[in-house]
DNA sequence: CACCTTTAGGACCAAATTTATCCCTTTTAT
DNA sequence: ATAAAAGGGATAAATTTGGTCCTAAAGGTG
């Protein structure tokens, strides 16, 4: 359970690739897709999300492509994951605290703890850190 | 992301109901389903899994039904969740450490941390605790 | 034994989600 | 103009989710 989907994996691979380019260097979606080993059209959708959320800057036409909108050290893994997978919510009842069935559910507190922990971990990892990691 | 499915929710509701019964009291699947507000045939499958894993004891025929196989204090939320949702694996690459694409993936360590944290949280909560919780 | 009750297990199915692909539009540089 | 790129919508196959249904097996009871 709790699995990241392909979309999430692709998103991470793609943005790490961008972070590994020389600062300011514009990358084509075709280039990122090839390097990250991700279907190009699918990755294009992912980067559209990134652009809408302000994680990357896109430009069209000749010489266009994608660049990080902020330093990689200012983009967290949480932002990247949530950009394509939505908010980290281990249980539906955490949305608006609506557990239904009369009264809050008994596991509410546990899931809130899980959510907080996972968010903290992912917030503590930047794309810069990942881009520099050699292994592990 | 990371959402528990209905199956997981139903599993938790069902086993908490069992834990709230007087010790040794046998419950019918129809009774548990009605009380937990879960489709009966679906819950039956869930309790089959519980029985196979030794979380509950089942008996057939007149007077049959389900009882906890151990004290509720000795059944963790993790066991219940994993019984129906499979192991807690935030990323596929944690299965056998096979990240593919030549070399371990850069996020491997992060996902392992997430996995460990979540497992620890869920291992720290017993069904007895949940059964006694009034709210939150 | 015959019959009823209850779980076990397999087959099946509809809906939702995932994992894409395709095509046309818009923007921009030359 | 034209070519190069991303933007955005429609579509679709595959997989997963969320069930249902039917028959079998096991265990009591008269």
Automatic annotation (TrEMBL), chains A, B:
Superkingdom in the source lineage: Bacteria
GO cellular component, one term: cytosol
Chain segments annotated as transmembrane: none
GO molecular function, one term: DNA-binding transcription factor activity
SUPFAM superfamilies in the cross-refs: Winged helix' DNA-binding domain
Record-linked InterPro entries: Tscrpt_reg_Rrf2, WH-like_DNA-bd_sf, WH_DNA-bd_sf
Gene3D superfamilies to which the protein is assigned, alphabetical: Winged helix-like DNA-binding domain superfamily/Winged helix DNA-binding domain
NCBIfam families, alphabetized: rrf2_super
The name this protein goes by in its record: Rrf2 family transcriptional regulator
Source organism phylogeny: Bacteria, Pseudomonadati, Thermodesulfobacteriota, Desulfuromonadia, Geobacterales
């Amino acid at each position: 359970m709790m699995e990241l989907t392909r979309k999430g994996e692709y998103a991470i691979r793609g943005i790490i690739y961008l972070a590994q380019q020389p600062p300011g260097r514009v990358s084509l979606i075709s280039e990122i897709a090839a390097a990250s080993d991700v279907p190009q059209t699918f990755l294009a959708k992912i980067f559209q999300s990134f652009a809408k959320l302000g994680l990357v800057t896109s430009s069209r036409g000749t010489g266009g492509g994608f660049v990080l909108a902020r330093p990689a050290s200012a983009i967290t893994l949480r932002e990247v994951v949530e950009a394509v997978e939505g908010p980290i919510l281990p249980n539906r009842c955490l949305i608006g605290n609506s557990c239904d069935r009369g009264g809050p559910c008994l596991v509410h507190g546990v899931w809130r703890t899980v959510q907080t922990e996972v968010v903290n971990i992912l917030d503590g990892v930047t794309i810069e850190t990942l881009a520099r990691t050699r292994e592990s």
